[in-house]
Amino acid sequence: MDEKDIQVLIDGTVNYFHRVVDKSTEVGTPYLADHAEVVVSDFTGIIGISGARRGSIYFTAPSAMLSHILLKQGETDRSPELMADIVGEVANTISGNARRAFGQEFIISVPSVLQGAAARQKLSLAERAFVIPISWKQYNAALVVSLT
Amino acid sequence: MPSIPQSNMKILIVDDSQVIRNRIQRAVGHRKFQQILTAANGREAIELFKREKPRVVTLDITMPEMDGIAATAEMVRTDPTAMILIVSAISDKPTAIEALKRGAHGFLLKPFTDQQLTDALGMLMKGL
Known about the structure:
The complex is a heterodimer of chains A (148) and B (128). Chain A is an alpha+beta fold. Helix content of chain A is 37%, strand content 29%. Chain A has a single domain (3-135), classed as Chemotaxis protein chec (3-Layer(aba) Sandwich), CATH 3.40.1550. In chain A, helix 1 (3-21) packs across helix 3 and helix 2 (63-72) packs across helix 3 (80-97). Chain B has one domain (6-126): Rossmann fold (3-Layer(aba) Sandwich). Chain B contains five helices and five strands. Chain B has a five-stranded parallel β-sheet with strand order 2-1-3-4-5, with helices on both faces. The longest helix of chain B has 13 residues, at 114-126.
């Protein structure tokens, strides 16, 4: 992954949050993931990538933030089931949007969702994985890009 | 074909995300469809489509069981007069063209605003 590739995903993240959540959402400077301390929060939505690139993209966020995102989408039900649904949908939307730049050979899977810190054991990161930090109100989330 | 009043029509909303299904359902609610049907994957959507004969369909592309492109083709084979709106995050031009070639009538890119959704549905229903 080069800088241009990372920028595509930063732009996709900004677009999603500014359009769906709030223009005050801040997307920070990406940094290399620490393999000893994989970034996970309450819910993690994972998209498997195959084709010309391989690996995964995941979005991880605290339940309080997901609850607010559901509210922004007009949901009154903010159950754990819907939090799992929306965390997967965010990962799916940002990954799907990246095909405009990466092309048809950037093949995305349907989302899978993990709950809690147990996700840390189940996620395997590429040698150079990047964390794109996202902050909105008092909440911190991240998009993690692990592609070869 | 004569136009059918919206109140006699059914709409089928297909997406593997319940949040998206709910959101589209709320947006179409005021249009007084006779019935709003929902499905979470392409195969379930085809079964409902054949049984309930909806005139309007919104369809995601990336779904389990059967994707939205294959489901579009199957729906068009079954009833070429149904109006199909693809609602997907897949943003590359060849995929959008492929969906339109298979018979979809419109393409709404996720993430969308409520206004974009309303406009896309309005445009779609002009074709009925």
